[in-house]
Amino acid sequence: MPEGLSASEVGKEIAEHREHAEHAEHGESSEHRPAGHARRDRLISIVEALLLSIVALMAAWSGYAAAKWGTESSLSLAKASGARSQASADQIQATQIRTLDSVSFNAVEGAYVAHNARLFNLAVKRLRAGYRPAFNAWLATHPLKNPNAPADPSDMPQYVIPQQRQAELHTVRANASFSAGESAAGTADKYVRLTVLLAAVLFLVGIGSRFPARSARYGLIAVAAGLLVVSVVQLLGLPGPPS
After folding, report:
1. What is the pLDDT along the chain (243 residues), one digit of tens a residue?
2. What residue ranges do the domains of the chain occupy?
3. What is the distance between the alpha carbons of residues 189 and 55, in angstroms, rounded to a whole number?
4. What is the pTM of this model?
5. Which residues, 6 or more positions from 235, have their beta carbon under 8 angstroms from its beta carbon?
6. Any idea which fold 7-236 has?
């Protein structure tokens, strides 16, 4: 994840700007430039230095926040992947248990149809412990006489497979973690986009100090100040770095 402008880059730009401003001031003093122009030049140099200082602070903060949100996104997506893997494992176990219950019920049903009481009782005893409450509740509906009775115990509300519920729970957690990861990645991208605006401010201020025409210099400073205001507004609208 790119971290945007570094404070050292902006500091270098500030130093170059100051050197250029001092050189321009000494150069024009030999030509006895008007005092009003000198004051305006010093003022605009101060404004440029102030803009560069603000860019340095914002760039450092934006880079830090982008890195933190990028890490948060990676962690959330990793949690989502782990939860989905666990949900898949639980779902496989639930399917195996459901198949076993179906086979066990078929054995009970076969023994009953064959009127083999001994085999019937043996098949009932071999039912899974978690399956017996649903089987007993199903027998209580008198399925042989009641046409509205459920087809088999698996249709009863008492039929519960813990692994199935665990799979559903892990799926919900995976979806939540994935959404959080996507949101964190989007926030990191916004911070990176903010550094692009800061880079534009840095470029405009840096190149403006090298223009001999004051009108061009003032215009670039005005544009840079406008972009900086936009950057500040965007920064205030973004959440801070995660802890």
Report:
1. 444 555 455 555 545 555 555 554 444 444 444 556 677 778 888 888 888 889 989 999 999 999 999 999 999 999 999 999 999 999 999 999 999 999 999 999 898 888 898 998 999 999 999 999 999 999 899 888 888 888 889 999 999 999 999 999 999 999 999 999 999 999 999 999 999 899 988 888 888 777 777 788 888 888 988 999 999 999 999 999 998
2. 7-236
3. 18
4. 0.70
5. 58, 61, 62, 194
6. Helix Hairpins (1.10.287)
